Amino acid sequence: MIDASFALGKEFLLPLPLPLLPSLIHAAVQDSLPQIVASFPLAVIEREGRHLVLDRRSRRLLVLEDGSLIKSFSVAVGMPGWETPTGEFQVLSKTPHPIWEHPQSGKRIGSGPKNPLGSRWIGFYRDCNGRDAHDGDRWLTIDGCVTSGFHGTPHRWTVGRAVSHGCVRLFEEDIQSLYRLVKIGTPLKVLP
C-alpha cells in the first residue's frame, strides 16, 4: 500500500491515493472502449487471425480475431524510464506458476500469493543488452537479459496505472483468461 497518508482527525489515517476497485475500472473503460478502438489505425484492427493490441495510453489490451473484438482487459504498463516497449512482437513463451527472480539480488520467489508474477507468465520481449535506469525510488542496473511480458499481480490496485518495470500486469482472473486465449507465436502490436 502507498505510504503517503492523510490524517482525518485523530481517529484513523486514510491512505492516498485510494486504490481503484476493479469493477470501477472495468465500468469506466467499457464506456470508452468504442472510442479507444476507433482511434486505432484500421490495419491494426483488421489484421487476419487472432492477435493482440496493447494501447499503453489507455492501458488497455485487446484480443482481436479477423477484425472482431474477442476480449478486452485493463492493464498496468511500464512507468516513465521503464516504459513497456512499443512495436511488433509475438508471444515467445507461456509459463504456468512462474518463478520470479529479482533482477539484481537473484532472490527467487516460487509460485504462490507473494509471487509478483501471479499465476501465469506470457513473454513477448527479450533484450540481452542489460538496462540502466531510475525507477522513481532508486537507480537500477541490470546486467544480462531484460524481459517483458504479461503476468498477474498480487497488487490489484496497480492495474490501470503506469507502475511496472516494463511488464504488463493484469488482474489474476484476467491473466488466466488471456493465457487460454493465446499461443506461442500470437502476434502483438504495442502502441504508444
Automatic annotation (TrEMBL):
Catalytic residues of the enzyme: H151, C167
Residue intervals of the L,D-TPase catalytic domain: 50-191
Pfam families (alphabetical): YkuD
Cellular component aspect of the GO annotation: extracellular region
Family: Belongs to the YkuD family.
Pathway(s) this gene product operates in, as recorded in its UniProt entry: Cell wall biogenesis; peptidoglycan biosynthesis
The keyword Glycosyltransferase is assigned to this record: yes
SUPFAM superfamilies: L,D-transpeptidase catalytic domain-like
Keyword Translocase: no
GO terms (BP aspect): cell wall organization; peptidoglycan-protein cross-linking; regulation of cell shape
Record-given protein name: L,D-TPase catalytic domain-containing protein
Gene Ontology molecular function, alphabetical: glycosyltransferase activity; peptidoglycan L,D-transpeptidase activity
Organism, scientific name: Prochlorococcus marinus (strain MIT 9313)
Record key words, sorted: Cell shape, Cell wall biogenesis/degradation, Glycosyltransferase, Hydrolase, Peptidoglycan synthesis, Transferase
